[in-house]
Amino acid sequence: MLKAVHHIAIICSDYPASKRFYTEILELEILQEVYREERDSYKLDLALNGKYIIELFSFPNRPKRSSFPEAQGLRHLAFQVDDIEKAISKLNKRGVETEDIRIDPHTGKKFTFFSDPDDLPLELYEN
């Protein structure tokens, strides 16, 4: 029935800050940016390695949502990396704080968490 995840939608509070974070810090590619006047909203389509992955939205007066990793609902978004130390170093040099590296007790793989400008929990998970 299901083939793949088509995209992930994120509503941000500060569109320029989030656009910069996802495109300049995480280096996602902009596929399309649209301003929807009737909604006073931007929609930014982003790709990772050429594959459409994230829709970044701005909406006025949006309600806040809990986003801590242990809150009910969507827990976090995880990005696969080949070298977690190298990825962490790159993020840290760009002003992004990361947690200490943890080891997944079931796979033995390294992972860590960091946050986007709205405190959305993001994860790096090493191959």
From TrEMBL:
PROSITE patterns: VOC (PS51819)
Keywords on record: Metal-binding
Annotated CDD domains: VOC_Bs_YwkD_like
GO MF, one annotated term: metal ion binding
Protein origin, superkingdom: Bacteria
Cited InterPro entries: Fosfomycin_Res_Enzymes, Glyas_Bleomycin-R_OHBP_Dase, Glyas_Fos-R_dOase_dom, VOC_core, YwkD-like_dom
Domain VOC: 4-127
PANTHER family, per the entry: FOSFOMYCIN RESISTANCE PROTEIN FOSX (PTHR36113:SF6), LYASE, PUTATIVE-RELATED-RELATED (PTHR36113)
Name this polypeptide is given: Glyoxalase/Bleomycin resistance protein
Gene source species: Zunongwangia atlantica 22II14-10F7
Lineage summary: Bacteria, Pseudomonadati, Bacteroidota, Flavobacteriia, Flavobacteriales
